[in-house]
Amino acid sequence: MTGTVVETRGLTRRFGDKTAVDHVDLRIAPGEIYGFLGPNGSGKTTLMRMMTGLLTPSEGSATVLGTDLPGNAEPLKQAIGYMTQNFSHYRDLTVRENLGFVGNIYGVPRRDLSARIDELLVTYDLVGQADQRVGGMSGGQRQKMALAAAVLHRPKLLFLDEPTSAVDPETRRNFWEQLFDLVDEGASIIVSTHFMDEAERCHRIAILERGVKRIDGAPPALMRDLPAQVVEVTGRDMRGAKARLDPAPEVLSTAQIGARLRVLLRPDLDRPEAVVRTILGAREDVSAEQVDPNLEDVFVAATTPELAA
């Protein structure tokens, strides 16, 4: 597969004096899971809504599956699926009734709809809940039903807005296995998340902060090319060690993870672990070791003004 499924050019959205998305350029290839990683308020949902044609940009444009936006959203609806951040289906209808309703909206032929619903009930392990009202199901079951509804009409491109924010780790893991199954079947997926482990599962990601795309690329490449060095510190009194490291000009950030500190330092330093030991006063009860970056380090570096400039 060649070309792009989504390309945006200077995509911008303002709400009054607030800029929610600020001149974002993207190129998303077919057959991949592309992730938007960022905290709440970083512009992930607004960006998705513009790419689905649900929200008109203040500036810029996008091409989604060959359709130019804004202005031509109607023909795009049959080709995309959209799973919103908040559950948006009818809680007083059963799973089967909700899926039937969605199928009718998308114009799935009646002769095919029943078989398609039965197929999805099996795929997403909802056979036992088929005739249960959705309002009485668990969050994980509702999430599976929402995904089934989003793919019912076999869209080429699927938008998933923080789809696992309210489910347990096992459900999240199973959900991602189902996403890779969809990619194997030919779909392309755009997903937003604030979970680092989910972002690392994506083929490529864009890190968003305050509506700005700070960096994008494949997670392994972003970690390899991190413009910082990482040192892990272990020992006693990690809170005291953090208090000494934070003000040091060589240190970009520190974060405590259990009984250890993860320290990001400037990329131009020789022997960064020795620099850390010096800052800490050569304490014998503390060890410092340079380690490989992870995606959280990439996120911190991308959103650190000194490095993001």
TrEMBL record:
Domain ABC transporter: residue ranges: 6-235
Molecular function GO terms recorded: ATP binding; ATP hydrolysis activity
UniProt keyword annotations, A-Z: ATP-binding, Nucleotide-binding
Pfam family, one: ABC_tran
Gene3D superfamilies the UniProt entry points to: P-loop containing nucleotide triphosphate hydrolases (3.40.50.300)
Signal peptide: none
Keyword presence, Nucleotide-binding: yes
SMART domains: AAA
Protein name: ATP-binding cassette domain-containing protein
Source organism (scientific name): Oceanomicrobium pacificus
Lineage summary: Bacteria, Pseudomonadati, Pseudomonadota, Alphaproteobacteria, Rhodobacterales
